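fyi for ur records
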Amino acid sequence: MNKQQATPYQQQLLGMRAALLAQIAEQRGGVVGRAEVAADHFGRPEDSTAQVASARELEFALGERETAELDAIDAALARIEAGTYGECTDCGVTIPPARLQATPDAPRCIPCQEKLEHHRA
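which gave:
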């Protein structure tokens, strides 16, 4: 897929990236990290140690998910720039447009994604 054909996907990816960054900023109250937010929310003397630990673990998990999401979007944008967007990163086959419309940051065709998920399970 050439850059002109990828333009609608690029716009969608940029919108997703902006929305995710705005969501992160709103949830954290700016540039404060999730661990600090958890400490502020659950760091009161009346909170149990287990409650504080659980809140921190949840904040770290959410932070990891957000980072992975941003990384996937950035990788898709890099593939657009490189001219390889829409090609499976594993086997090189063309990813169907319907898959890219549903998941514009998808790096793999469905069979390769299923293989990956099967190996992780």
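The radius of gyration is 18 Å. thats all i got for now
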